[in-house]
Amino acid sequence: MIDKKGILFILSGPSGVGKGTVRKALFDQATDLQYSISVTTRKPRNGEKHGVDYFFHEKEEVEKMIEQNKLLEWAEYVGNYYGTPREYVEETLDSGKDVFLEIEVQGALQVKDNFPEGVFIFLFPPSLEELKNRIINRGTESEDLVRNRLLAAKEEIEMMEAYDYVVVNDEVNHAVEKINSIVQAEHCNRERIAEEYKKALESDME
């Protein structure tokens, strides 16, 4: 009997590329993927549940987790910490379930350092012009902020080399189809299967 571990899939890309929209469309379908629950120090909003939406912790607890390398990645936004708990991810993978993580590029690079066996998917805009339009159409940013976001996006696109796959987000459903194809392909990956067989054979020989 082969003890199949799950695979960690990381979806990332520049700000404004539509990561959240693609992730939501992916999970609106029937899927065996488990969405990675983040740790945060912010207070729960109405209807949010601990262990469902987030793991809500005090600041001191999360700082201790950072010190002890218990987060695969973390960042601080507006005075609150957000991060991906290593224990939750590893336990879910050990149970044979795939874990899906949607994060910013800097966070993905942290995960790559901490968990290089993950599968890294870069969500790419159809063009920089389209990315600019998406950022402007949010209607929430000033002209300076739009310019800064675009400069940051250009820098993030240059980090694409750190990823295993690139998916162009020209149309949400097409992007979701491609991600599902990547999930299936990774489960047929020769190196991954060979490793599982090797472990099964070794345990049979004992």
Automatic annotation (TrEMBL):
The keyword Transferase applies. Residues 6-184 form the Guanylate kinase-like domain. GO terms for cellular component: cytosol. It comes from the Bacteria. It catalyses: GMP + ATP = GDP + ADP. Keywords: ATP-binding, Cytoplasm, Kinase, Nucleotide-binding, Transferase. It is an enzyme of class 2 (transferase). CDD domains: GMPK (cd00071). Its EC number is 2.7.4.8. PROSITE patterns: GUANYLATE_KINASE_1 (PS00856), GUANYLATE_KINASE_2 (PS50052). ATP binds at G13, P14, S15, G16, V17, G18, K19, G20. It is found in: Cytoplasm. Its main location: cytoplasm. SMART domains: GuKc. SUPFAM superfamilies: P-loop containing nucleoside triphosphate hydrolases (SSF52540). InterPro entries: GK/Ca_channel_bsu, Guanylate_kin-like_dom, Guanylate_kinase, Guanylate_kinase_CS, P-loop_NTPase. GO terms for molecular function: ATP binding; GMP kinase activity. Coiled coil: none annotated. NCBIfam families: guanyl_kin. Essential for recycling GMP and indirectly, cGMP. Belongs to the guanylate kinase family. This is Guanylate kinase. It comes from Salinibacillus kushneri.
